[in-house]
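Attaching the record inline, Q. Sequence:
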Amino acid sequence: MTELKYRFTYDTLIKLLFVKYPDLLKRLVAAILGIAIDSISEFLITNPEIPPEAIGNKFCKLDINMIVNGERINLEVQVDNEGDYPERSLYYWARIYSSALKTRQSYSSLPRVIIISIVDFTLFDCEEYRSEFLPLEVSRHEVLSNRMAMLYFEVKKLPKDIEAKNELELMLSLFRAKTEEELKQLEALEVAVVTQAISAYREVMVSNEFRELERLRADARHNEASALANAERKADEKWQGIVADKDAAHAVMLAEKDAAHTAMLVEKDATHAAMLADKDAEIARLRKQLEKRV
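Structure, as predicted:
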């Protein structure tokens, strides 16, 4: 099995792919929303650029923001489960929703905001790969507003055998693929949109744009590693200095204690010697008195 060097979940690759081939993104969004592609009259990617300075930021989020038929849609592909993804996606929804209100507009003019998350890990305790969340009343299940929708697709839960007519599952399977053999199996189904997506994926991988982004990322990682090593070296030198200072202070303290202890012993010896001398003198005096009596 030949592992893919870059999977469809790779952030810079997938963003470049969908920016360069927006029709593929449009097909994916239509399949996710369950609408006919012909029904999409407005389709705009509002953040097509990838800022070079953001590539080295480990917290960089290369998502795709869209306006689709007046609705705001955010698509993100997430590989690692950092334990707070639901809260994170809620934050994205809140930020997009709040920023959509223009000056002097009423709240009723706010657009519907849909957050689409394609994740390569198990997020919910269920068998279904698709989960949709809306703001509901807990007893009556009455929808509070249609302005919020949170869609999650856990690609690990996709069925192993996917029918050629199921466009959504086929496109999501691209994000699950880890080997060349898996991509070839999908190509063998001869579904046009999947074949186009894989062809576009291969073209992006050898493009100058992608190579430049990878060069910037490699440089950023090297600089980060160098800065970390330098910081660790300085910290080690500082710690060694602190230890040396503590050792020197401890040695001085021990010397002072030894000197004090020696002085105390000398004083005790002198006191003891004086006491013995006094006793010897008293004994001599008593002996003389006895001799006189005799």
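The chain has a mean pLDDT of 88. The longest strand covers residues 71-78.

More tomorrow.
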